[in-house]
Amino acid sequence: MGGKSLSNTTLVLLIGLAVFALVPVLKTTNYQMLLAAHVLVWGLFAVSFNMLFGVTGMLSFGQALYYGMGAYSVGLCVKYLGAAWFFPGMLLGIVLAALFAWLLGHLIIRVSGVFFTMLTLAFGQLGWQVMFKWYSFTGGDDGVQNIIPPGIFANKVVYYYLLLALVGASLWFMGRLNASPMGLILRCVRQNPERVRFLGRRVRRNQQRIYMISSLFTALAGGLMSGVDYSIHTDMFYWTTSGHVILMSILGGIGQFFGPFLGAAVIIVIEDVVGAFTEYWSLIIGLVMLGMVLGLPHGLMGGIDRLKARFAGSGARPARDGRS
């Protein structure tokens, strides 16, 4: 991705941030702002996962481990040390996730394909078991409640704008990374790791780096979510949370930078709108995914690109006809 693509990414990001910034101004209920906050957090989670799978080709079913790690670092710090530890707890969660991902990545990137996927699933489920069984410390399946940010950030609008700023900065950083030489190497690793080794690049080291980077942004998403919902629960560690973000990425378009964010927005809105009328919203999402596989195999962003190419082609035809 060159400079032009980077500028396009930045432009789309700025427009998106401007739209989300208007939500507190235009909202008619606080729930609309809560819904937008959920889209932002899940969008960050999905884009960070896409850096791992869509760019590098490493399918992890254990990213919920880092999502939960970020959330529980905040929740447990607030529970045992007080509300003033909300943001230090968030930073602690990011650091712990980065360190754990670096160490775990050093182990699991020695294998690839389905073996890598199963190892991430195993470690993720191990983390869920620990948090679920350690009731005296984590609260078990009761989770932790009343996780309220300190000071002015207890105001939902103020916290929303902080959330928007952090998500925007994170997306900007990942966009820069995606457009950097490292991003190019990672895409080459996905397509032909042996050739990358032949060219003298360290494949495992780059895989370990992106695994760590993806995990720390996932932990940030978890920490931010604890301040959105004011509560956390052990399901945040469960493999279905990882599966949820994989569906978002596939729906939006694997490998497309903003595709997973778009997929997250669509699924969150479907869950909210359809869930208000029926408890079978998961069936609706399943039907949407089936339609996507059949009609738009490259996701929503792939469909948008096809439409843009079609309109560009139809706009060029009259000029060609005029010259003939």
TrEMBL record:
Which of UniProt's keywords are assigned here? Cell membrane, Membrane, Transmembrane, Transmembrane helix
The question of whether Protein biosynthesis is a record keyword is answered with: no
Q: Which residues cross the membrane?
A: 6-26, 33-60, 80-104, 111-131, 158-177, 210-232, 244-268, 280-300
Question: Which cellular compartments is it found in?
Answer: Cell membrane
Q: Which GO terms describe its cellular component?
A: plasma membrane
MF term (GO), any:
branched-chain amino acid transmembrane transporter activity
As for membrane topology, the entry says:
Multi-pass membrane protein
Q: By its UniProt entry, which InterPro entries does this protein fall under?
A: ABC_transp_permease (IPR001851), LivM-like (IPR043428)
Protein name, entry field: Branched-chain amino acid ABC transporter permease
